[in-house]
Amino acid sequence: xxxxxxxxxxxxxxxxTSNKSQLVRKRFEEKIKEVELDKEVQVVGTGCxxxxxxxxxxxxxxxxxxxxxxxxxxxxxxxxxxxxxxRIVEKYLFKEKAKVEHAEEHKSLMEVQFYSKQKRVALRNCxxxxxxxxxEYIARDGYTALGKVLTEMTPEDVxxxxxxxxxxxxxxxxxxxxxxxxxxxxxxxxxxxIICNADEGDPGAFMDRSVLEGDPHAVLEAMAIAxxxxxxxxxxxxxxxxxxxxxxxxHIAIGQARELxxxxxxxxxxxxxxxxxxxxxxxxxVCGEETALMxxxxxNRGMAKIKPPFPANQGLWKKPxxxxxxxxxxxxxxxxxxxxxxxxxxxxxxxxxxxxxxxGGKITNTGLVExxxxxxxxxxxxxxxxxxxxxxxxxxxxxxxxxGGCLTAGHLDTPVDYENLAxxxxxxxxxxxxxxDEDNCMVDIARFFLDFIVDESCGKCTxxxxxxxxxxxxxxxxxxxKGTLExxxxxxxxxxxxxxxxxxxxxxTAPNPVLATLRYFRDEYIAHVVDKKCPAKHxxxxxxxxxxxxxxxxxTLCARKCPVSCISGTVxxxxxxxxxxxxxxxxxxxxxxxGAVQKN
Amino acid sequence: xxxxxxxxxxxxxxxxxVEMRNTGKDIRVVVGMATCGISAGARxxxxxxxxxxxxxxxxxxxxxxxxxxGMCTYEPIVEIYAHDKKKVxxxxxxxxxxxxxxxxxxxxxxxVTEYTIGSKI
Lengths: 600, 121
Prior knowledge:
The complex is a heterodimer. Chain A is an alpha/beta fold.
């Protein structure tokens, strides 16, 4: 094997790829060949590093230089200066947004504020290896866990180990994986299945995507281990079609694993057979729900079914089936290798281990973070996330996507784990964390999530099909300034009934954003309904734009930019907006250089 | 895959390549690779260090290049930084000397004094 003296790692995750990281990679390969360094420097495409805000990311080893916001134009200089002459190009390095005491020192990657509080277990290989090369996965102890399991442990041993580790389902429900496996194992059947749920429907969530794109073999190995534990010989990965890069990497990984005999017949000469196929979703959020997902694999319309029977007893084609989330599976090989005590040594007593969060919304460091359970929301949002940008005040953080709730500044010191988040009216969910600031309207946020749910409801049960639509109608009424106090009571009562009577988790959790915002931001609802005002100045119907005659200099810019020409006034004289004709587009507000346009 | 031994062999081969990406190494071998260094023959020296370190699986050693150190007449120059120890500067290094430095200094911890700058000036 050729030994290279330097590696250039370029992020090939979806985020950086959409920001042209592949063009950056191509230019590196070309330029390195031009200066005849191609035998000494290896260019490697990797998975997501996590600091998506600063992408495209390029890391050069052995120095560990972290170049951020890379463009094709910067490549030549880095090759000439850094690779050829050993002079790190400081101006292109990632600068810590927070205060840096020793500016001359190059912090190593793990010391950077964004990474220092993280503990990368499920993401351990993302950004470090080439996901399209099985050898690199093997170099990082890949498939050693499967080897150990097949040659040294019985299926019962494996299940016992997993139960001790208490790995809880990372898809949102938090059900212990070991217990789930122990339900499926004793059932006698001629065929059992392992399904990996890679549908990841929550808006703003991309944890599973990054694992699949950056370390697909971790998932394959874990599925084989699970198969051995319960007696399944076949696995399906149900991955949403909107993740083409992940799908491609999975196919490459499955092909390479089969080639090396790590999937297929008689793995490690143990007599155990296991093979995996992918099945693509087709855009339905409800197909992330396990019963609807299995319907989809079977070729039927994705609609939920009542439980019991549970999949562990009667699942895919009525056979015993274990369904686990991508992140849950990504933890399995590490737990087998390092043992349950290691896994329980970080996290909390009831929620050991780590959780990946996708930080989004009004936050400085948007990206992917993996933290030990028990870390506070404040640490994640401020220490790792860098707080809200542009000096805006933090207002709320939404966890759990459309199934979760909004938490306030008063909750920032809540330690993150399944029980703590549920206790304050939210849920852990799959890991999406959307931060909101003073410019977000909480009523509109509830309306946004409900709009999504109404679109995605499968329609089978009345509470969800009709109930969520009615809730949406009320919320739209409120944001248009036509709501009443009675509407708020009706909203709350509807929400509670839907929660109690829906067939599946989609409907049961749909009212959560509404209930949480009513609980913590009731004053905003009251302002909309009684004062007919939106405190965040977001809901168009409740806004008026007015020109302050004392500040207006009569420059006529707003009048010229108004799309409906409703601003009157002559040069050097104060202007006026005709409120009857104003469509509240906000153009005048954004172009005025004197702050004369008031948004009320 | 027929056995754990087979997997181990693949792992040992592949690890040499991926090992470079772990930071936090104790020992840094810095090879001068500016124009003066390269024209004096630093390229093969760098390659030898990288190969030898990989061959012996020295996971705590990082081999990096640097620019002009200043004493161009003494190139190829190799500086070795180890935790809590004084920096050692080797001058007029070539591939043969590099191999000896790896074996004696990096593996056994004893400086090859006759190659250092101190013994020449």
